[in-house]
Amino acid sequence: MRLPVAIAVVSVTACGPLEPHEEGYVDHDPGVWRAGLTAGEAGGCDTSIVAGLTAQLVAELNCITPNTMADFRGPNITVGAAVQPYLNPAAASALKAAVAASGTNITLSSAYRSVAQQYLLLKWFRAGQCGIQAAAEPGKSNHQSGRAIDVPSYNFWISRLQAHGWSWYGSGDVVHFDFLGAPNGGSTSVLAFQRLWNKNHTSQLTEDGDWGPMTEAAMAASPTTGFAISGCGTPPMTGTLTGRVYRVNPADPMDLSSGIAGATVQAGGQTRTTDMAGQYTIELPEGTYTVSATASGFATASLSRTVAVGQTIWGSVGLTPSGAPDNAGPELVLVSPLAGARLGAADVTLTGTATDALGTVAALTVAVNGAAGAPVSVSGGAFSHAVRLVPGANAVQLVATDDHGNVTRLDVAFSFATGVDGLVLSEAGSVAGATVDVVTPGGYFSAASAADGTFHFDLLPGPYRLRATAPGLAVLEVPFVVGVGRREEATLTLMPSPEPTEVQGGCGCSSGFEAFVLLGLLGLRRRR
Question: Which residues of the chain are under the pLDDT cut of 50?
Answer without folding.
Answer: 1-33, 501-528
